[in-house]
Amino acid sequence: MSTPPRSDQQLRHIYNVVQETGSYSKAAIILNLARQTVQDAMREAMGRLGLPDPRATVIDKPGFTAFQGPSKERPLAELLEHRRNEANRSIEADEFTKLFRIAIKASGPVGLMVFGDPHIDNPGCDFPLLEAHLKIASDRKTHILAGNIGDLRDNWIGRLERLYAQTTVTARETWKLVEWMMKGAGVHWAWLVRGNHDAWAGHNDPLDWIAKGAGVGIDQSAGVRIAFTHPNGAETRVNARHDFPGNSIYNPVHGLKREILHGFRDHVTVAGHRHIGADAGDVNGDGNSIQMIRVSGYKVADSFRHEMGFKAKPIHPAALIVVDPDLPDTSRGRAWCAPTVEEGAEYLDWKRERFNARPRQKSIKTKANK
Question: Can you give the pTM of this predicted structure?
Answer without folding.
Answer: 0.80
